[in-house]
Design brief:
The structure is a homodimer of 166-residue chains. In chain A, 36% of the residues lie in helices and 18% in strands. Chain A is of the alpha/beta class. Chain A has a five-stranded mixed beta sheet with strand order 2-1-3-4-5. In chain A, helix 1 runs parallel beside helix 5. In chain A, 51% of the residues are buried. Chains A and B meet through helix 2, helix 3 and helix 4 of A and helix 2, helix 3 and helix 4 of B.
């Protein structure tokens, strides 16, 4: 197997029901795009009202940029779209619990809700290893949900690292 | 007084002694550049050996991008310069304690040492409000120093916010 080809299929959800699962499925498809470019398969989508205004996947290796995580790129795209650095009416869907950098970016951008698939007890910034959404003196505390597509998103990352070790 | 003109002068340090103060003075000059473009005056410099390989200041307002903090931009520039996302031989000099996003970026980039001028008990990510450099299971724990140009850097930010309130 070529390590740069993801063995998991994309999901094509119905456009008729735009629920949280719909948006997370799009984030999952972005994670598959990441794998197909030899990046750790994490994907992110930003929702404003019922529209997707930004999609992105990890690009740290291809860009040689440690800040090029899916969430960071999506936040920058969304802010350009909105025309304001404040994303207080937006929701982020991401297939893995954000690291401290990305968790911090959800606070700096005043993201209303962050949905993530599976948690990261080692480096998660929104409840896993630390809780940046709940700093005592912070002006902004985003709402957090977890567990949408938890298994699929976790299996994707685990399978990627297994394929890399081969 | 025009709020977009910084009343504090830049510092032009001797090139003969490249100590920590030398690098922080360059970060301070970047903070003045920020003020002069109507941005919160925080500046950052990245050092590799005895060279400055990246300088940047806050650009969140002008770029309408919540991720465009001085430290983030400098890290991206430095990684392009080094040709690798790992900055484990680099040192960051920044005039204010990094927020959680930027503190997280110093960990993701494996920055060797972070020097900051004054601490931020409200939103600082490296000891002020939380300690991201010391997460229990983290693979990377940068060394932190604080206090270089502490007063000057703090006065600059305070004076900027005072000028904004007028």
């Amino acid at each position: 197997m070529n390590i740069s080809t993801c063995p998991f299929p994309k999901i094509f959800p119905s456009q008729l029901e735009k629920d949280d699962l719909f948006f997370m499925q799009h984030a999952y498809n972005e994670a598959i795009n990441a794998w197909n470019t030899d990046e750790v398969p994490v994907g992110a989508v930003i929702r404003f009202e019922d529209q997707i205004i930004a999609t992105a996947h990890n690009q740290t290796r291809s860009q040689k940029d440690p800040t090029a995580h899916a969430e960071m790129i999506a936040i920058t795209i969304a802010a350009k779209h909105i025309g304001d650095w404040r994303l207080n009416e937006c929701q982020l869907y991401v297939t893995k619990e954000p690291c401290p950098m990305c968790a911090g970016a959800t606070i700096m951008s005043r993201m209303r809700i962050v949905h993530y698939s599976f948690n990261d007890p080692k480096m998660g910034g929104l409840g896993g290893a630390t809780s940046l959404h709940d700093l005592e003196m912070s002006n902004h505390k985003p709402t957090i949900t977890k567990g949408i597509m938890e298994e699929e998103s976790k299996i994707l990352v685990q399978a990627f690292f297994q394929s890399q070790r081969k």
